[in-house]
Records
---
Amino acid sequence: MAEAHQAVAFQFTVTPEGIDLRLSHNALKEIYLSGIRAWKKKCIRIKNNFASGVYPASPSSWLFVVLTVLGTMYTRIDPSMGMIGKLKDHLPLRRYMSHQGQNLVSALLFATGLWLALIFVMRQILKCLLSYHGWMFEEHGKVSTTTKVWFTLVKIFSGRKPMLYSFQNSLPRLPVPSVNDTLRRFLESVRPLMNDEDFRRTKALAKDFERNLAPRLQWYLKLKSWWATNYVSDWWEQYVYLQGREPIMVNSNYYAMDFLYVTPTTSQAARAGNLVHALLLYRRRLTYEEIPPSTLPGFPIPLCSAQWERMFNTTRLPGEETDFIQHRVDSKHIVVYHKGRYFKVWVYQGGRLLNPCELQVQFQYILDENSSPQPGEKYLAALTAGNRWFDKSFTFIVFANGKVGLNAEHSWADAPIIGHLWEYALATDSFQLGYDDDGNCKGEADTTLLLPQRLQWDIPKECQEVIMYSLKVAQKLAEDVDFYAFPFTKFGKGMIKKCRTSPDAFIQIALQLANFRDKGSFCLTYESSMTRLFREGRTETVRSCTVESSNFVTSMESEKFSVDECLNLFRIAAKNHQHISRLAMTGCGVDRHLFCLYVVSKYLGVNSPFLQEVLSEPWCLSTSQTPIQQIELFDLINHPEYISIGGGFGPVADDGYGVSYIIVGENLINFHISCKVSSPLTDAHRFGKHIIQAMSDILALFNLDARKP
């Protein structure tokens, strides 16, 4: 293989005259440039860590404090109230310094200490400010004076030009709710799902748990919350994701899809070239921390950025009892799978990223290469369930017609993180990089690039048998997925806002109505909510099936209620949904607290019938909204066709639905529905029709046409 020889820095041959050593200058140059790039990245990382470490102050503010202290000293004013003199008396090398030198060193030490103290105070003030969430519970459009003052103080103490991780040390810790509050909210959430006898039984179990076992478990949980950065996240990652023994395909991984109406090019290699380059540009921005920290939509409130750290160079390593996440600081290549074969593609040349047209050449070489898979290679990835490698942080898929998709492993991060990457990649592909008239990547390719290197495998026969068995499991799992994605175009966020209600509450209540019409009963409903207002926060559950939403659904299915009565019940349900959503975001949800109490009980070796029963209940309706986080990257007015259909996930329960939705602009909502073919109770297309009808029926209650002037 000629391309393999080019990568060797030197070759030697033993002859009778001695050793004939031949150096490859090109390879040595690449090694040199690679080292320069690695050291450059290390220096940038050190600089960024220092800048984030002193935030909300800036490194240049140290010079300002030093000059101020020195300036006051020359006016014979001691700003240190004697501390500079004491430092001067205790300098270890003072006898080797002049009097003026001693004064200068002492002043520098005092100024540095003062600067660090000011940083600590500013950070603590900002942390206290960010711990206040009362503003979130105020009525929409009515901002109190307290909230206005609070917003002003947050802006003052948030500093200027933050980098991705600047706010990490200023974010508050996730609070542990009281057991009484959690159990009260839990009982409220299950009331519409139980008859009177079952509810009395559950209430008795909860009361017994609160009196006897809960105080002991809660004490350990409080202890952890004082010591650990986040009392939930590490256990959630470990026990929910890494110790899960089911295939992560369908059951855990989630996906993102391409533009809904547009395919920028039909060339598979060109689309791969542009998008891979866009992904690598994003990785460079991530390395340099040039990505602005996420904030709460519509508010200058920072969110935790910790999940970005493992976006690239990360994989999930399998183990017998638990898996592990491996993250490498850097990687210089990608692996490409095509027709059962694996290729290693270098993405750097001469210390720079390959441009899109150079990547297109690499991918076209793989498409044209007609070698056969080695024994066991074709279905090797079935060991992680599929023909794709499902335990990578994310896998990028390019289809023959130019359409693209993405599959993400769930343990390292949640959907909004990968969604941010995907928005950037799609926008950069179409609006920044673009294609020529023939659909190829723009630019010129370096003809001396190393060609892709075919990976070599030695797979024993026993292992091949295991691979084929895993393939059958994966195929059976994939064939059991019923999937339906559709754009809802009758109305969108703009029309819902005219109803003076939350778009998310509107959709969630519509899902309750659709589910009742689909199955004839209510079910335990999961809506994902983020807790990234807190450091290392991930998600919390909003239990969307409530007494209030059930009352509304019942009224819609009964002829005894008038339109006005139904509308009033809807408003009550929507207001309650907003309230429980805000509770979940501010650390007062139900499920993560109960989950952690259960983990503590297992560590202590005690059994709780209440916790065992609660955590074994299936989520027959699992829902999540995928937010658009970088709307500025897309021109929805002039180019409404450049919108992604979003993404989704598999069903959680055997007889349940998985529903993902993305609100795009003012007039479009995309829905993704999944369920299992094997269940006689579910049908994705049928449920989609129920959603469309429920959305329309709820809007009709407001009679907006009659209210127009």
---
Amino acid sequence: MSAPGRVVALLVSHDGARWLPAVLDGLRGQTRPVDAVVAVDTGSKDGSADLVGSALGDLLVGGVERVTGATSYPAAVRLGLDRAPDAEWVWLLHDDSNPDPGALEALLAAAAADPEADVLGPKLREWPSLRRLLELGVTISGTGHRETGLERGEYDQGQHDAVRTVLAVNTAGMLVRRSVLEELDGFDPQLPIFGNDVDFGWRAAAAGHRTIVVPDAVVFHAEAAHRGVRRTPLTGRHTHYQERRAALYTLLVNSRARSLPFQLVRLALGTVLRVVGFLLVRSVGEALDELAALVSIYSSPREVHAARRERQRRQVREPADVRRLLAPPWLPYRHGLDFVSDLAAAATNQAADVAERRRAAKAEHDPSSMAARRIVLDEDEEYADTGAVARFLTNPVAVALAVLVVALLVGAREAYGAVAGGGLSPVPASVGDWWRLHLEHWHPLGQGTGVPAPPYLLPLALLGSVLGTTGVVSAVLVLAAPVALWGAWRLLRVVGRFVSPQGAPRWLLLWGSATWSLVALTSGAWGEGRLGPVVATAVLPWLAHAALGFADPEPDRRWRAAWRSGVLLTLATAFAPVAWPFAVLLGAVVLAAAYAVVRSGLRERSVWAPPVAALAVPPVLLAPWWVPSLTARAAEGLLLEPGRLPAPTLAPLDLLAGRIGELGAPWWLGAVVAVLALLALVPRPTRIPVLVCWIVAAVAAVCATVLGTVTLTLAAVATAPALGFLVVVLQGAFVVAAVLGGQGAPRRLAAGLAVVAALVPLGGLAWFLAVADTSLDEDPGSAIPAYMVQAATRGDDHGILVVRGSVAEGLTWAVRRGDGVTLGEDEVLALAEEDRDLTRDVQRLASRPTPALVTELADRGIEYVVLPAPADGSVAAMLDATGGLVQASAADPATRAWQVDRPLSDDALDGPGSWLRVVLLLVQGAALVWVLVLCAPTTQRAVERRRG
């Protein structure tokens, strides 16, 4: 029988030297002193054990029990309990829990007032703030969330100072009858450090014992293990894993038997949702810990079953009596709504944080910062009273931007609906065709090929799943210019603030963003349906804006800039493969220049690693494209943009004037921008950033010059590398340089040049609206009869061999399958190797066809042979006389056609499988999710957790 009224304190320590002096003072300074102290140290390396031994003196029983760091908290409590002298009460303390002088006295007074209370807990307040509430009792929700009933960061104002019955209390300051502790065999060894208090309280309640919280007793708790301030061998770096595993275990071993199947399913689905939630807030580690905890518990059914049998053996109270102490069933849903609101506010908070940082930077450089801030606030209040419409109508720049956007949307009317022509092939009927082309290793195109699908099919397929194939291409062409306008405005505004806190004048931002948005339109790329330069124009300002984050003083923001830049660079590379080698060369030049100027600044890994990581993202995300391109001997695709071949050739003047193809605006529009960029070198205040723009332009010009000397010889055509992206880069660099020069130029000079500069966007917009010609509505037609096209859609083995030309001038051939060559397939076919066997068969058809040759055509999955007008009469005559070929009708009398009267081979186009393709697609999917998570904004809760 334990001695009535006696209290023994049981203190467990582990590397707690930073808190122990205050904790020991609090223990010795109790108004009702403890009768004895038992101390257990679990492998401390900071002298905690010696500190406890020297501070407690005669109170300490048998010295400090020293055990290894792998000893769990339940095991440490068991060791201390075995050494503890006879006493009625055991007071559990952590090495980071500092009791208020009256804590023990208040706990014992509550025990005397309520003799049925067996477990008592204090009010826990945050240490070192001392005022914020942590816990006044604790329970658990049906999803495993630890519930305290407190608001986040709530201050103690006496609002919860009532003694009440709870499910459990924290072991930091728990006062428990020794008989109860021994009856329940202490704490569960399966909960080594976290969650043992909730499990113990649940078991105590089921066994008929009562737990109360005593708010008059106060203990200050640092929560070192939970906040990650202290690592132990039991937690390592995965604190969240241990906490989540403890929560899952506690629910499964204590739940009612009839609700266990539902609980298993609920926790599994809840874990999936929590993983998604953590990924959305860039908490990849916590997401992995969630999965690991679920796998750990669900893979140990024997342990769960044994724990449930042990609890059922001690159960005295009805489950309904315990269930009222648990959290309400609706509480997890409220937490879900809170998370959604936190996530929605994250982007807003981030934008406000950026604005505040810029405002602070401005105030730092402004001697009259306080007065300036007061003026800004006064102006904001004045504008707030006038209304949004009035502000808009009285702002000429806003009106001009709105008019420009409307004009761009009207001018893009040719792209509404289905578009094809020029360099743009028709889209397939279903987005499933794009997904199939992206996922499969062997394509049933032509005579079958292993050339990988172009990388831009993935973003098109993702958007096409929502908008449809026709809608996504139309949206890209229509919205490219407005998106470029928006991105250019953001970029130029930030760049202007690098030069001066006030930034560039709004009229200058309007000129620069308007000029940039027209680059794809005036270059002729839009009119020819060249998606590479069109998408590059829209993406490039956002990419440059993200890359400016590499100059941020905070390492976390530099890393976030790395992932965002990497994703945007990947998107640009998918549509314009030249973007990545250009970015690598530019990155090397910039890092070399930075090393030469500020050598010591690049010694830190957080300075040079983010740009390198951004450059490493595209090869990883685009691995399913470039790796098979090399293995399938289609490396030429690494230098081609989307669209039909051959790609337009560019003269040096076209490169400087920003012209791509024959449908571009007059050359002098682009030349004016180049001249303005050259004049921007004159003003001294902005000369350095303008030189940076010229370095970018020089790197682009060098790349274009080198690539301009290359000719890519493919099976069906010879073409130059696609240089549209480099044209966009050059124009972008010129625009930024001109804006910077205008910002630094004297007012009179800037006003004089403004008249000339205004001709560029005004002239470009007028040309696009009234003069520009497009080839987006060109329908080349087809010499193939409609019934043959319909037959070809029945399967890949119903191919149509189209032979053009004559024996005298030379013959060319192509095999049409399905609904014809669509966007994405044109690039695969262009890069596919020539089928030399079929070439020989075509030669034999034109010279000496035989029935055996017709059978071979059927084995190749060819059902029809077509000679489009004007058909070579000698070839047609020989085919008419060939056994196995039956004359077929054609709409054009000058076109001749035949049907192969032989059984077609079902497996004519079957190709080999590839485990490498599967691996690359899995790597791409996992890497894409990973990088997008790292790009996402951080919620306030995650920020607080990291700071803690």
---
Amino acid sequence: MSGDAPETREASSGPEPSRKGPFWRPLRGGIRRLRLVGAVLVGLSVVAVAGAASLLWLDRAYPPRLSPADPPSTIVVANDGQLLRAFTTREGRWRLPVALVDIDPLYLKMLVAYEDRRFREHAGIDLLAVLRASGQMAAAGHVVSGASTLTMQTARLVEGRPERTLARKLDEMARAVQLERRLSKDEILALYLSLAPFGGNIEGVRAASLAYFGREPNRLTPAQAALLVALPQSPETRRPDRFPKVARAARDRVLDRMVSLSVIPPEIAAEAKTEAVPEARIAFPRLAPHAAEAALAAHPERAVHRLTLDRDLQASLESLVAARVPLFGPRVSGAAVVVENATGRILAEVGSAGYLDDGRAGHVDMTSALRSPGSALKPFIYGLAFEAGIAHPETLVEDRPTAFGNYNPKNFDDGFQGTVTARQALQMSLNVPAVALLEAVGPARLAARLADVGVDLKLPRGEAPNLAVGLGGVGIRLIDLAALYAGLADRGVVPELVIDADAPPPPEAGLPRRLLSPVAAWYVADVLSGTPPPDNGRAGRIAFKTGTSYGYRDAWAIGFDGRHTVAVWVGRPDGAAVPGLVARSSAAPILFEAFARLSERRAPLPGAPADALLATTATLPPPLRGFGAAAETPAVLASARRTLRIAYPPDGARVVLDDLGGRRQQLAWSVEGTSSPLTLFLDGRPISVPTHSRTGSIDVPARGFVRLTAVDAGGAADSVTVFVE
């Protein structure tokens, strides 16, 4: 065989050796790959944890604002939350607080559908909206639609940075996520609705609704709701008070969009488009301006001041005073107060006839100004006389020219009525009987009793109370007279007036602020209910008293029924005389008109207490049949000559009834020289005495002066006044 023949290799008949090497090599490679994957995962986890930690740190280090730097408007509301007065913020904006429950549901539905349909689903950033806006911008070469969510807009409004750059947009996104972590969806929406711009210095949907529609946003028409949705998009160019056509077009586009989204049907949208767009702003409410200013001064730290006032009654009374008072002169003002007798809550308080009327000094709150009350204090003189047992409504008194030292009071018409009952004297506001009774009870006692219930009379410097107090020679406030007359209505207990509905409750109540005994207070109320009414009133509906101060400077009318007391004043704030200003023809008609506006809330006057002495002049005990000169009849003179005498307690004594253990004892009494049967009167209230008794004891629960009167079967009588402790 030739040596140059090609050499061939025979195939081996044994197994072909493996090209992958030994069997552990794949396993080792898989382990390496697993280690690599694990390392990558660990690295990613570390990066993720570090990133999350960094974001958490950044979130905590740079938390978002949850409220703007400029706080919202301070508001004053009525007892039920209705707006009385609002004030601009420090930067001059109208930004009123609002809650979602106080906003029309249709408006909320329109707003979310128009601005952020996935508001309830996203976490602050709507990624679908971002992708859609990016695609539209790439295709069109400019911004076609935005991707701001309501949360992002809220973040921008809170931060107060209006620039629209990419950096600001990214910042808004980050802040939106932060807000979503801290607030609920409803809280974010409420924050947006309180900050959204609506043109000019109007911010928030509540301020916008009041400024453009004159109403709260709790009930809006579809057209109004659509306009409020459209305005924040471009608040300055769409302002209806400046650009009504642009505003209407924007509103109509919102309505069309709501139809396409099936939020409202086409026929509702078509009807809404026919509604006019407001072309001027409406002034914000300015009710109870004096009370609002006082509330701010008392509690400047509060954002919301809630008063006890009834908004509708306040508005009605302000319009009444503003309409009636100008009839009496160009510089005449007026004031009125309505009080709830049982609680002392002030339901309406009108401080002047026009807050902005400089000619009438409208800024001066005449409910708290010191003025002469004229005859308005007379009922309390009679009440003290009734309580002391020296007079009764049917007691005869003399109205004749009388000198009290150098003091010679005359009646308003310079005439005299002769002998009249105390009832008639008070109803006709006669001066001589009032001064005579005041002399008997003591001016100092009247002033002290009023001070005990929180009413301090203003006397000239260095002077003590004198008889002139009874006819107006003293200063008093309208608000104090309202409280005193409310006490007459409530059986002699004077309420503590309150206007701050959020004031802390008073400390545990002690003894009531009693002005008069229940019987004496009812006597006075019963007498005043018979006072002849003015031309526009009906007799017997209310108990009331008028008063005209010396020189025609002040006219008063104060009245009450079983539920309310109304006090009215008319005059010039500067104290100048107003010729012809008489309470009966000026203040009294306003009083009766005010009660007419309270007609649905009226309550009858309470009935007589069980121990009231219901009698005629002839059937009264002899000592009560006449007072002063009217008591000098043969029968009374005969009784005075008898020997009946109260032996104990002595007249003018101070008697301590609390023993060392704090237990209340009864007041002991003893009578000498009497014939049976004997009748006792404690502050005019008859006390049952057993037949033939000459001694006994009486319950006297309250501290203060009491008058004890004893009358026997023959008409003899004696009285003592003691101070009980």
